[in-house]
Design goal:
CATH class of the largest domain: Mainly Beta
Largest sheet: 8 strands, antiparallel
Structural class: mainly beta
Shape: elongated
Radius of gyration: 30 Å
Number of domains: 3
Number of strands: 55
Helix content: under 10%
Distance between the termini: 25 Å
CATH topology of the largest domain: Jelly Rolls
Number of helices: 2
Length: 678
């Protein structure tokens, strides 16, 4: 009996027209989860990519069907062994254990791979120096793997490496525009076997990996440097004070193994004031004193909420929701208060519209500030007759020091960004909210030593003199000005400034527990002969430096006590030279009887995952065992075959299982080759 080859060409293992029907068909690429007969276990949370390309967290005991973050193609069941991220505050670079040098840190300024606005912008300073964030730790002889998510800004070369912050470092230069590695740099003798690779995660984000063995020769320290360059491989340079890139999600482990991202544990302790957040409807709400805030995305409630932790900040604007107050200067404009619903759901948003006078039409405000400090201005705007305009921030002592930008509420963009003099425009942002609202924010620094104030201007349409129509305008609400490196959640004020207290919290390392899967009793198992088809993608660099085997998929007798006894198995193995092989083996009556069929190397593929298709086919009557891998020649051996009735998969694996099929017949070598051809 054989399978019809004409059927195999299109959908062999699934075809209902095949003469031999599979008794087990697990096609995880269909994205439908696990059938009820599969017993799955994982005693911790774990991350995966969902069908929209967002990095999400699976709860304990929930299997992870993961997707390609760029193409949104379903890849299959993500299976991994135990792993620990030794980092605390893996997503919060403005706190310990990080120390910035030659740059400034601006948290929550871009959408991170998990769909929240949690990415950190790192901006180069103006000195001639290295520009980096240092992670400091003690580390003896160890093989470490580290990773960080990064996205290009004005700078697109990430400098990322290991350092003992004394005399030794080894680092790579990652190009965030095209996903390549420009090269490496090193000094000292403490680091060996350095490897780097990069993976694309969609929306401009790359996950950048480094791996090396650290020897305790000149220092017992082993930390990380996350830095930037002037879009080249020159480590020391003079920055412009406003260019940067984005980072998020650092991971550091000492088992030498690549892993899916493991976020640090973050726990809220207290906060001595009320504070705002975005609820599950996208509306701004207020949490009472000492109540944790869980923020949702304002426009995508499909994204899981996340614990919101912020530093103390003061809204220096009074009357943040009332532009009719005399604190706001109106030049050729009129105002109407409490006209429509604001982002917090109350009818407190105002209108400002141009008069029929000839001149520049704008709303403005001036405040006392201090030179050489970083400030952030933000405001909520909604289109009315006008859908665009200009915002300008200038030095109160010298209006030649300014920056100006056009905002467009239709395209959700900020453009024509210009600056002049001693005012450094560090960043600008436009964030969509419900019902057509946008929050515009601008972060800047004035280096004019004589500066004591800042002027803010919001222009209707443009900043030129013209005749107004007496009607056209915009909706406005929630103005905020704070001495902070980025816009924090909105702080409401009336007649006086208001301070939100800092969130007090703790952070700890996290260990992800291994995934395990099995089918205890396979219906339709054939003790005399059968074929096991296994299709998977392994991580590009997940192997330890020691010589070790990792079981991936195997048939076994359910009465066996040890996982490697009485089994027909696929393994992944690596030797001390870091070559990786797929091997097949049989154990019978607890005796290892059969070794490698053939060497199949998929090492040294560092920029992409290694996909393979394989079949192990057995016949107990003829004592014949066969293996075919990726459409190659079938390997044969004569050996005793154990009686098997259980299917296990995933034990000790790092990778994605796409499909497992069991046929109650030893397939011919021709069919094996057709099924496994990539």
């Amino acid at each position: 009996m054989s399978i019809k080859t004409s059927v195999i060409k299109s959908s062999a293992v699934e075809s209902s027209h095949s003469v031999i029907q599979p008794t087990v068909l697990l096609d995880f690429k269909k994205g439908k989860g696990l059938p009820s007969k599969v017993v799955f276990s994982r005693n911790s949370t774990a991350t995966y990519i969902d069908k929209t390309g967002i990095l999400k967290i699976a709860q304990p005991g929930v299997p992870r069907i993961t997707y390609n973050p760029n193409t949104k193609e379903c890849l299959g069941l993500l299976i991994e062994n135990d792993a620990t991220n030794l980092m605390t505050n893996s997503e919060k670079f403005d706190d310990t254990p990080y120390s910035p040098a030659g740059l400034t840190i601006h948290p929550n300024t871009n959408i991170s791979p998990d769909g929240h606005r949690l990415a950190t912008r790192i901006v180069e300073g103006t000195t001639n120096s290295l520009k980096y964030i240092l992670y400091n730790r003690a580390g003896s002889t160890e093989t470490a793997v580290a990773s960080v998510f990064a996205k290009a800004g004005e700078r697109y070369i990430l400098r990322f490496g290991f350092t003992d912050y004394v005399d030794n470092f080894y680092e790579a230069y990652f190009n965030l525009n095209n996903g390549t590695i420009l090269g490496t740099d090193s000094t000292g003798i403490d680091y060996t076997n350095f490897t780097s690779w990069i993976e694309y995660y969609g929306n401009g984000w790359y996950r950048c990996f480094i791996r090396a063995t650290k020897a305790t020769v000149t220092s017992i320290n082993n930390g990380l440097e996350i830095g930037l360059t002037a879009n080249n491989t020159t480590r020391v340079y003079t920055g412009d004070g406003s260019s940067g890139l984005y980072v998020w999600g650092v991971q550091f482990s000492t088992d030498g193994v690549q892993s899916s991202y493991i976020p640090s544990s973050m726990s809220f302790i207290s906060r001595a004031s009320s504070a705002s957040y975005i609820d599950q409807t996208g509306t701004i709400k207020t949490a009472p004193t000492n109540v944790a805030r869980y923020n949702f995305s304002p426009l995508n409630q499909e994204i899981d909420s996340k614990l919101l932790l912020e530093p103390s900040s003061t809204n220096l604007f009074t009357y943040s929701e009332d532009i009719t107050n005399a604190a706001w200067t109106k030049t050729n404009i009129s105002t109407t208060s409490n006209s429509i619903a604001s982002p917090d759901g109350t009818t407190t948003a105002d209108i400002f519209y141009e008069t029929s006078a000839t001149g520049i039409h704008f709303l403005s405000r001036s405040l006392a500030t201090t030179a050489n400090l970083i400030y952030t201005f933000s405001v909520f705007i909604k289109a009315k007759e006008y859908t665009y305009g200009v915002i300008e921030i200038s030095d109160g002592q010298n209006t030649a020091n300014y920056f100006r930008a056009n905002y467009n509420l239709v395209t959700s963009t900020i453009s024509n960004f210009t600056s002049n003099g001693l005012l450094y425009a560090i960043s600008s942002d436009i964030v969509p909210y419900l019902n057509g609202w946008y929050r515009l924010s601008f972060t800047y620094k004035i280096t004019n030593g004589s500066s004591t104030s800042t002027a803010f201007s919001i222009y209707l349409k443009d900043n030129t003199s013209r005749v107004g129509d007496g009607v056209s305008g915009l909706y406005i609400w929630g103005a905020q000005f704070e001495q902070n490196n980025s816009a924090t959640n909105y702080i409401k004020t009336t007649s006086s400034q208001v301070t939100r207290s800092a969130d007090v919290y703790s952070s700890s390392q996290v260990t992800r527990i291994e995934d395990t899967c099995n089918i205890p009793n396979i219906e339709g198992i054939n003790l005399n002969e059968g074929s096991l088809y296994f299709e998977a993608n392994t991580y590009a660099n997940y192997f330890k430096t020691d010589q070790s085997n990792r079981l991936m998929c195997y048939l076994q007798n359910s009465n066996t006590n040890r996982f490697y006894d009485n089994s027909i198995a696929f393994w992944v193995w690596n030797d001390l030279s870091n070559f990786h092989y797929l091997r097949a083996s049989v154990t019978y009556n607890n005796l290892y009887e059969f070794g490698d069929f053939r060497e199949f190397a998929f090492a040294n593929i560092i920029n992409s995952n290694a996909k393979f298709k394989s079949i192990i086919a057995y016949n107990a009557n003829t004592r014949n065992l066969q293996v075919t891998i990726n459409g190659g020649n079938t390997s044969n051996s004569t050996t005793s075959i154990p009686a098997v009735n259980k299917l296990n998969f995933g034990n000790g694996v790092y990778g994605v299982i796409s499909k497992i099929v069991y046929y109650p017949k030893q397939l011919s070598s021709i069919i094996q080759k057709q099924l496994t051809t990539l």
